[in-house]
Structure formats: structure tokens, C-alpha cells
Amino acid sequence: MNPPRIKDNSRIGRKELFEVKGIVERIADKTVEQLEKEGVFVFPELIKNSGDLDKDQKILQSENGCFRTGNVMGFLGLGDERLIIKSRFGEDNDYFFAYLLNKVVDFPNFVDLKTGADSEDVLFDYLLFLFPYYLKAAMRKGLFKEYIRREYNDSDPKGTIDVSRHIKLNTPFVGNIAYSRREFSFDNSLTELIRHTAEYIKVKPYGNRLLFGAKDEVKLIVSATPGYSVRDRQKIIYENKKNAVRHSYFKEYRSLQRLCLLILSRQKHRVGLGGRQIYGVLFDGAWLWEEYVFTLIKDRFYHPMNKIGRYAQALFDGKVGPIYPDFLSKNAEPRIVADAKYKPMENISGRDYLQILAYMFRFDSKSGCFLYPEAECAGDFKKLRLNRGSTFEDNVAPRDDVILIKRGLKVPASAASYDDFAEKMSESEREFKKIFFG
């Protein structure tokens, strides 16, 4: 039986989820942060720093006898139950989600939310496909290096003598001394874990193709782990479970460590830790959309990155009130402030307006844009003019000099294949970019 598939940013009747009532009971009205702590892998992982995927966002939120989904897509499992959350675009094949993953995270094109006989294979593929991305992100900090204790037995002791081992190894005495010492080394339990994961992926039918995008990083890991032995895999897994990376500077390595443990633990155990353990992989659709839009307009726009705290702008002097507008035009005359929104056009309102107007005021901008994905059959353009005056003086009138535009990118409603979908998306992208590039 195929598992239920629900869509993001949609209302779901409770009856539609009867087959997965166990999952519903575990995730309904729970925040993404809570699910992450229970073992669900969330991408990008550090949700507390992600502007759109709020740590308090809920996967399924109760609403008037139904449920409302948010910006999250992915896969969840509990016991024999499976639930897929796909994008709201497309029916049978979720090519749009696959397209975003391919453009932003460089996932292989054959990613497909349709499940086969073993739904957990889909989850496991997601974990494998994320490995190159997390590896490259971690190794931007350089190879991980830490103190480890190594044992020696030679005639030139440079550490703490190990009496019991010395007696065992050097009786009768032949000139060697058994000792140990702490060394700062690249060949440690974490780099060994990464090496084991890379070697495990290599033997997959698509392994070499998958690792090609991170071939330089994999080569560095291989050269840094001369002590690698496949027979040590379970010992390395145990050491990493016992010694998680904790220093905040190496948070990317902490994420990579967790991913590697999930991948390697799959060899002998199910991904979930027991029949009542909720597990899965969830993707932040809002983050994917924002990063995808940047690939289209990066020649004309700056992109402050709130997730990693880079290129923060300040509302006030003294660096007070850091803000992160999604996109800020490089051309100051006229300056354009653009905000990526994954939700439908009719849901862009209220706080969204206040936020972009604050950004426009801060950067002396008279032009603002909301950029969102839209179904092919829907309207893709709406122009709003800021009001002046007030109802108290009965003089409210639209201004001609401050404009806010809602601009959608058309997502193809149907496609014969992924390649066909990608070709149609390319045409939509060309139309979408005309608003900035003419």
C-alpha cells in the first residue's frame, strides 16, 4: 500500500490521514524543533537560525477540525506507517521539489518522492544525497583536528609509560618502552567516521557519481585517514555516538557527524530506533526557494544570509537591530528590496508587508518585490501602491512613488518527465527574470 502523500501549505482533512494516525498523533501541533530533538533530520539543520523555517513552526497544525501544513516537505515514518509531504505543485510526480533540490543542493535528477516497496529506501537515499553538501560545508572550516591518545612501543619514549603494557610486550626486555601520548591529529574518530561514510557510499550503484561533486573534499579525507580499516567501522560509530562534536565553531562538523551516524547505522538497524520512534527527513521549502531564487538573480542582487549570520545590515547606528533582507539590489538608483516567499500569493499579507516596508524605509527604496512560486494557471503579477493620508481626515490616496510588486514564477502544471519539467522551468525562469533584467 502506498503511503499517504499530502502537500505543503494546504488544508488536510483528518480522514485523509486515518491510515497514519500514529504519525499524526506524534507530530500534530508539535514544533519542528521538538521533532528534531526526537530524531527527525531537518535540512537545513540549524533551524533556530533559519529565518523562514521558524523553530516554532508546526508540521501539522490543528485548524477548525482539519490540519494545516506549512513550508516543510519530506518523509516521516513510525513503525509500519509512512507519510510523504510533497510540494503543492504537481500531482503524481513532485518534479518541483526535485528541481529545487537539484538546483540548490545538487541532488541527482532522479530524486523522486514516489515510493517503492520499501519506503525507507527513499528516506535513506535522501540521507545519502545530503552527504556531499554537508561534507563541503564542514570542510570550509578545514580538516577537523583534535587531540587523541596513541600508544607506542619503541626505544625513544616521549610520553606516559604504560607499565602493564610494557611488561606484557617487553618481557624479556629488548630495549623498547611501552608508552602513550596525546597528539593533535587529523586522523581522529570523526574524520574516520567521514571516511567510512564515503567508502560506504562508493559501493552504491550511483556512489561515484554522487561523490563527484565533493571529490576534492573526499580526497582530503582519504589522505588524512591512513589508519582507516573497514573492520573498525562499529568501533568508530560507537566512539562518535559517545563523543559528539560540541564546540560551536565546528557546528557544520556536528551536523555532518549526525548525518554520517544515521547513514552508517542503517547497515544493521532500521533508521528509526524502535517501533515507536518517529524518524524521517524534512526539508525547509522556504529556504530552498530563497536559495533557488538567488541562483536566478545573483548578478543583480546582494543576498544577506540570516542562517549563518553573514552580511547583516543594521537598522540603527551602533549596529543595533540587525536585519537580513532576502535580496538587495546592487544598483542603488533605484534600490530594489526583494523578499522570497514560498507561500501562495494570497497568503502574503500582514507581517510580510510590514517587514518589507521596514526594509524599504531603511534602504531608501521606493520599489519592493515579493517573489514566490505560482501554479501555471494562476495570475503571476500584482502591483500595490502605498497609501498616504488617513481615514480620520478622509484623505487616503495611493502614492505614485512607492510601489510593491507581487511577482510569481510559473511552475509547470504537467510534464511528461523530469527533463520535460526542467525545460519548461527554464522558460518560466526567463520570463521571471525580465522584471529585473528586462
Explain what this protein looks like in three dimensions.
Helix 4 (119-139) runs antiparallel to helix 10 (251-265) and helix 6 (189-202) crosses helix 8 (215-224). The longest helix is centred in the N-terminal third of the chain and has 21 residues, at 119-139. The protein has helices at 21-27, 32-37, 95-105, 119-139, 163-169, 189-202, 207-211, 215-224, 233-242, 251-265, 285-297, 351-362, 418-437, and strands at 5-7, 11-13, 41-43, 60-63, 66-69, 72-78, 81-86, 146-154, 160-161, 177-185, 279-284, 301-302, 313-316, 320-323, 327-329, 336-340, 367-375, 381-388, 397-411. The strands form five sheets. A six-stranded mixed β-sheet has the order 12-15-16-17-19-18, with helices on both faces. The two termini are 50 Å apart. It is elongated and about 105 Å long. The model is unreliable at 47-53, 111-118 and 267-273 (pLDDT under 50). It has 438 residues and is α+β, with helices and mostly antiparallel strands. The chain has 13 helices and 19 strands. The chain has three domains: 5-142 and 187-286, no CATH class; 146-185, no CATH class; 298-437, no CATH class.
Q: Sheet with the most strands? A: 6 strands, mixed
Gap from first CA to last CA? 50 Å
Overall morphology? elongated
> Order of strands side by side in the largest beta sheet?
12-15-16-17-19-18
Count of separate structural domains: 3
Mean pLDDT: 84
Please give the number of β-strands: 19
Give the low-pLDDT segments: 47-53, 111-118, 267-273
Proportion in β-strands = 15-25%
